[in-house]
Amino acid sequence: MTELVLFHHVLGLTDGVRHLADRLRAGGHTVHTPDLYGGRTFATIPDGAAFAEGADGPDLQALADEAVAALPSGVVYAGISSGVMQAQRLAQTRTGAAGAVFLESCLPITGDWAIGPWPDGVPVQVHGMDEDEFFAKEGDLDAARELVATASDGELFVYPGDAHLFEDDTLPSYDAAATALLTERVLAFLDRLS
């Protein structure tokens, strides 16, 4: 059994994020789903981003740190889209990460936005679609390629399509086939870390 923290995407902790967490739990893993929006969810990416980035928005870093404070150091940090920012920061800065799973986003490990080098011995998976306007067209795919080339145990999985948030089954962007394959790959990764 692996213990994982899954940070939600920009729309908040939707039922779709919970359903993905439940699929991972069904594989025998413990999955924490902190709600960094305090119960709020949004229907569109611009609305969620306006809330998260607004003057009165949540302090996502402080909330993420609080969410993991009582957890053991040896957890897997996972995030969906904007949730990757907290997952990747914690995987790179909190001692003892067991691994990381980044869905539809990846921060660079050099240059602008970089947190620093990838820690030695921390396995990582990155998943995204090859025509996703956010993942493929804004530099995240390039950052993912750099990360997995640098990591001693890194995997990049690129799926055909242009959907963003394709693993959230409550959204029009949901892709059942891609999500099934993603879930299979993540479960195999978590099983390997057990």
UniProtKB/TrEMBL annotation:
It holds the Pfam family DLH. One of its GO terms (molecular function) is hydrolase activity. Residues 122-192 form the Dienelactone hydrolase domain. This is Dienelactone hydrolase domain-containing protein.
